[in-house]
Amino acid sequence: MQPSTPISDMENVICPNCGASLSYKPGTTQLVCEHCGSSFEIKAEGLVQDAQIEHDLTAALTGSWQTAQQEGQAYVVKCPACGAETAMEKNIFSDECAFCGSPITVAPEARSIANPQAVLPFKLEKQAASTEFSTWLHKLWFAPNALKKRASSDRFNGIYLPFWTYDANTESGYQGERGEHYYETVRQMVNGREENVRVMKTRWYPASGRVSRTFDDILITASRVLPKKFLNLLEPWDLPNLVPFDHRYLSGFKAEVSQVPIQEGFNEAKQVMGIAIQQDVRQNIGGDEQRVHSIQTQYSATTYKYLLLPVWLSVYRYGDKIYRFVVNARTGEVHGERPYSAIKIILAILVALVVLTVLIYISGQN
After folding, report:
1. 3-state SS class at 343
2. Reported confidence tier of residue 2, pLDDT bands at 50, 70, 90
């Protein structure tokens, strides 16, 4: 596969008609100029199937990174507050961190980073994301009114987040025990009287064997800034619609730089695989109950991809804490952290007490 355009080449994509910056229009394959209204088609520079090519993980772990994955120069700025590293246009000298809202007033630093292999372009426009966010907010009881007003503001940032995907064939040997239930009738005291009672007991038998499974596209976030539990809830992603990386899809957006090394990402993928493997082992042991003493897994045909996936991100400060809300820019799925309004909670308790008092009074009258 030919090297993709480096993520660092995120200089402004210029409109040839008026000289203003072009931005990618979500849901299309076009760049648009907000100044003169011109639009330009993004012509693919590679084959669509290039986005799905799997790279040898062993080569990436044992060889040099440069031979395993193409590198490019990126203009990266690091937030002094939360540590997020974001690839930006090189002529940006002041901005606001998309992850925590802190001001950034330093020039981006040129740095060598790994190019993503593929990108899933934005599909939802900012307004559509704001609508999904507003719908989600209004389902939250006890959310502060100020937070709900925030839904209509223009505070969403479009950002591409880095992810790894891993494939592997696994062979697992295990040792454990299979439990089989049986029943005995015994005499027990029940409500002061001795009665015959059926009691379930379990016989345990040693069990061992092997299970195999093939894993495809285990998705692991390469971001350390956003909580993993929220990013995991944004799944599923329509990964079959990945396109080969093209820096023009990033025009007008930001992109977080991977902060999770490939080996660390694979270790996390092993944990995900391990949950499925243990379920396979329990099913293979059979019986009514299972005890799993040990599992030894061998991995083969391990491959990976490095991707950028799109989200709309909003940051909200309430009190002295920062709350973040993430919208899947492909599906509209919304998740995030939420504050609670102490006033609303107290009012709800008072209302409940009043209602309870009235019910007790009515009951007493009757």
Report:
1. helix
2. very low
